[in-house]
Amino acid sequence: MFEKNHKISIAPMMDWTDRHCRFLHRQLTRRALLYTEMVVADAVIHGERERLLGFDDTEHPVALQLGGSDPQKLAEAARVGEAFGYDEINLNVGCPSDRVQSGTFGACLMKAPDLVADCVAAMKGFVSIPVTVKCRIGVDEQDPEPALDTLTDGVFAAGADALWVHARKAWLEGLSPKENRDIPPLDYNRVYRLKAKNPNNFIGINGGIQSLEEALDHIDHVDGAMLGRAAYHTPGILAGVDAAFYDDTPKTFDFAALIDAMADYAVRHIERGGRLGHVTRHMVGLFHGLPGARRYRQILSTDATRPGAGPDVLKAAFAAVDFSGTDAEAA
Length: 331
Known about the structure:
- By secondary structure, the protein is an alpha/beta fold.
- The protein has helices spanning about 20-30, 40-45, 50-55, 70-85, 100, 115-125, 145-155, 175-180, 190-195, 210-220, 230-235, 240-245, 255-270, 275-280, 295-300, 310-320, and strands at about 10, 35-40, 60-65, 90-95, 130-140, 160-170, 205, 225.
- Helices cover about 40% and strands about 15% of the residues.
- It comes from Mesorhizobium prunaredense.
């Protein structure tokens, strides 16, 4: 059963929301639902599963996003994901990248709502955890009113537990994936109307949400809000999630404890053959706006990327940040 209290989630973002990023985000919020990068169903079935799917137990609740368009392959990949311990399986019907289109999945599936429904039904038949969908309001010349309604009706009839809607069209011809994140206009009202038509189904909203205040405003109209680039580039905002949306965290946030946790995590990663930079690249924007943040960024961008760099670099960077005048705790 999909949790109706998943008010905040962190969007699946290719090349960004890897296991190290998600571990960081979990130190900032205990309650937000985290999503993996999209993983192609064929890779799950035939690839190196631990590298593709492995995650730290502290990441829960965490959802696996799959890409694909073959119902049986998606069902098998979903089964594997459930066995790995994921809390949810999400189907990507929103990514506009060229490599996704060439595989006939992602946003181009908006044009094949019956196939999307078949994929959802197949996955539901293989797993006991929630199966959800993330989509756009439409693609190319589609009218977002009937296109989104048709997709929504189909996936919920097939058993989907939730639908997350990026409130922009995707233009598969003429715009790059990066341009598709900015140029098509946001239409939040379209998602609000969808929720009004589906009062008993979970509808979440995504796209252009820059702050927790904006997310709170959206939740007056839908069931959940999904943060994307704002959560990645300024992850410190996530320290306010549990207080703002769940009212279950102290007023101050202990960033020193977070740095200790990330340093310990980095040690484990390095011992397995990884590098400090794999972890710290997700932490560069952590103290955005605070005195000393520029020096913090400089240290992580230079010293943390050098061969042999260890967690002492992370602690040296943290020491440059000035928390005086804030509600956060530095030590």
